[in-house]
Amino acid sequence: MYTQRASRLAGAVVWTKTPTGAGRRGVLPDGCMDLLWSEGRLLVAGPDTRPYYPEGADRTWAGIRFFPGTAPALLGVPAYELRDQRAELADLWPAARVRRLCDRLEAAPDPATALEDIALDTAAGATAPDPLLRRLVERLDEGCSVSATAVELGVAARTLHRRCLGAFGYGPKTLARILRLQRALALARSGLPYAETAARAGYADQPHLAREVRELAGAPLGELLGGG
From CA 68, how far away is CA 65, in angstroms rounded? Predict the structure, then answer.
């Protein structure tokens, strides 16, 4: 079972997942990065460009999902170094610090809240996220083109691409595709017909939607929605 709630850390979401016995689905690209806790391990989920399928037996997880582009400043590592990876936090931070955090989580009655507290403590001493990148996410999520957004933000295309690599793990065009995918999934889950979903999410037509969903999510839209 999956549950989530808004975090006390602005823009973040706290979530938990427990085994249900049902078949597991891949984790789809969403532009975000997560701090994860499971079975005594602290991990970082880097930005995905393809579906991620957890290895091994299904297990209980707690996580905090950060607004796109905000985790690298908090973690102190550029996003492109973690693209399509699940990394041990001890490989990114001093091992002694991570051991103390693991002990804290092991002793916590609610690991999800303890994980949120760790994120809040870390954010208090981290560099503030770049407000330009937040505006970039907002404009791309509204369906604006990368070129028009770059002009609006007053940033050269090459500079924007470099800054996106550090914040999101990939360039602005990939970010725009992933945000569009998430818009389409939300619309389709609401019951909107696929043709209208394609138009409202910003695809040229329904076949374009189908191709993009297969490429980024690894399965047809109907299967992702539980219909096949």
Answer: 9
Structure confidence by residue, pLDDT tens digits, 151-205 = 999 999 999 999 999 999 999 999 999 999 999 999 999 999 999 999 999 999 9
Measured CA to CA, the distance from residue 160 to residue 158 in angstroms comes to 5
Q: What is the rounded distance in angstroms from the CA atom of residue 225 to the CA atom of residue 186?
A: 10
Helical ranges in 108-145 per DSSP H: 111-124, 131-141
Strands 13-17 and 2-6: antiparallel
Q: Which residues contact 114 (CB under 8 A, 6 or more apart)?
A: 104, 105, 108
**Domains recognised in the chain with CATH numbers:** 2-124 (no CATH), 131-224 (1.10.10.60)
Alpha carbon distances (Å) from 188 to 95, 137, 147, 169, 224: 44, 21, 27, 27, 10
In angstroms, the CA 139 to CA 68 distance is 13
Q: What is the DSSP string of 60-93?
A: -EEEEEEPTT-HHHHHTS-GGGGTT-EEEGGGTS
Local confidence band at 127 (pLDDT 50, 70, 90 cut-offs): confident
In whole angstroms, give the CA distance from residue 184 to residue 194.
9
Spatial contact of 114 and 105, defined as CB atoms under 8 Å apart? yes
Question: What pairs with residue 2 in β-bridges?
Answer: 17
